[in-house]
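Example record used in the benchmark description.
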Amino acid sequence: MAADSVQYHLERMVPELEDLQERGFFSAAEIKSIVKQRTAHEYRIHRIIPLKSDFLRYIAFEENLERLRRKRKRRMGQEKEAASHGKPSDPFEQPQSSLSDYSIMRRIHGLYGKMLKKFSGDTLLWVQYFDWCSKVNSSKALGKNFAKAIQLHPTKPTFWVMAAAWEFEQNANMTSARVLLQRGLRINPESQKLWLEYFKLELLWIEKIKERRKVLFKDGVPGGATDPGQDDSKDESSEGVTVPQLQEEAHLSATSLERDPTVSSSTTQSSDTAALLKPTLTAMQQTLLNVLIPRAVYRNAIKTIPKDFDFRIAFLGIYKEFGAETLAGQEEVYESLREDFGDLPAAQSVLAERHVDGVDPTDPAFPAALKNAVQAFNIAVEQLPSPEMWERYADFLATSLSRVEEEHLTKYLTRLLLKTITNAHTHHLATERMYLTWAQHSAPLPVLQAALERLPGSAQLWISTISHSKDEAKQELYEKAIKAVQKDEQHVIWTTYLQSLTQDWAPPITPDSDAPDSFSSISDQFTKALSILSSTPHEDTILSLHLHFARAAGLGRLRSVYDRLIGTKTRSTSFYRMCIAMETEGAKRPVSVDMDMVARVRRLWEGALSSNVSNIDTWLDYIHFEMTVPKDFVRAVQLYWKATKCVSDQEEFVRRYEEMKGGL
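Model output (structure tokens):
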């Protein structure tokens, strides 16, 4: 059955291949090679259980083939003038020259169609297809397949957004873009992405209208009712995304967004793009251009998703992207934050910082704006006396201090920052970050010692205290820190402590030197750290430090250390790889290979495989080692056959193995 299908598709390629050869794009030998490769790809995609990778490789082959055909066509002077303008031809349109000019592109579309039919649930494949269609300017395919993707995945906001963006940006059809996003929100009312994209779409539309009106009616003199460079009425009548009634929306009533009179007006003549480009606007049309619809979208969004602070901040961020003309909308967001999140420190911080938002520190208005922000923060810390509120106040002052250069402002902010942190400390509300900031602007050691009395479990405070202490006191402080710090932060102390021990260590000048060698005592500290941090995400960090320290002491000590570590516990693949990297460092340079090293590295590779026998990278690197260092090709082949039975993806392993062999 598969052979018949393959033969059928190959026979259909004959006219195209003949045309490619007749026009001189490919030689007879190249045509045979194309047939051979297409045959192999066809058999892969027609097997009982084809893989996504089968289709993707076939598509990649066809794309490279089309790229080569175009290149040779240009070189031979056969490229049509229309194609030289930078717009690829639409494969669904009538061919301009001959069969080979569009057959490869049509085949790629067909391959995508088959793949998406087989793997229709893979949203990433749909997105990849849309990206490719956009790149080759295949508008009809986009319109048709956006609708298909939405029908299959109506609860995936990505497809609604992509379809609406395409309608607005490519077809200049704002009405269709609105309808798509409104339908998407009817099915997915809790989707923040859809709300934010719809909000941004309305702002983009308003900005576009205003820019067009500036061009048409600059200096207040009407320049005409239409812009010859952009005919929106023509674009909006072009074929777009037509999504039929979906089962998911059949029993859904109109949302509050669709019932909103302001939003519903966006589909009437008063908000039509062409109508808004006339010399004289009605009162309703003038109001629409004053972010009326985006404000309505925001009100309905927070009504649907009322308890999400970050969601509202996202709207505020979008407003700010569009500048001062959205100040009325921004004020509405701020007011809603004050009403609904007045007891949240983050909201109070946003409300206070708004006074200096967008004001340059060199602007004469900055001191007054800063004063207003400081007053707002002072009220906030009185109403919400919490560590987070005080910390946000201190962070604001520290950020402002880093922005200003004027001497008086710098002194004022420094004094105010220290006063704020001192007040928080007095009320037992200062945080770790506040103490660290305080230490930067004052005598550090007394501040940090006072901080540790309040927050003895803070790893960062201990590290900062130790760094500002005398060398002879550091050992004792590290020991105190290890006992005081909470378990989930002990890795910070241990890492810093071990780094301080190893960075100053140097091996004895000669093996028989009388100078004391502290290698063993430092190794004992590593052992202690590993016993405490065993099976935590930070264990590999300590192991890496230990191995590098041992390697600096000599290869013999490195081997002694990793042998002992392997003997005490099953180690991870990354650990074995670190050992192998240190063992094989410079292994290709010597004339004769150290076979003792080879034997050790082989044992390490076997250990790496024992921790994850299905890892493709480990098998390939092991084989690569055998081919390049001892050059034992017999063993390399044995490893290859063993790997094919163990790896997670045999086909991927074989492909990468062939690539590796080709690069040797």
